C-alpha cells in the first residue's frame, strides 16, 4: 500500500468517523469504507472500456426476424333482432 493512498484513506476514515458522531469501536468499518471510496476514485477509467464494448455490441445489426402479418380484426357481427313474444 502506498503511503499516499494510506494517508488519504486515514483522512477519509477520520471524516467518516466524525460524521458518524465519533462512535467507539467502528474504526474498521470506517477504514474499509474509506478504502473503498478512495479505490473507487480510480475505477471510472477502468469501467469506460466495457461501456464502449457494450455500445459496439449494440451497434451490430441483429439478424432479421420474419415479420408476422398484422393482426386483422374480424368484422363485427350484425346485431340479431329480438324475437317478439
From TrEMBL:
UniProt biased composition (Basic and acidic residues): 24-49, 64-76
Ranges where the record places region Disordered: 1-85
InterPro entries: DUF2934
Protein name: DUF2934 domain-containing protein
Organism: Mesorhizobium captivum
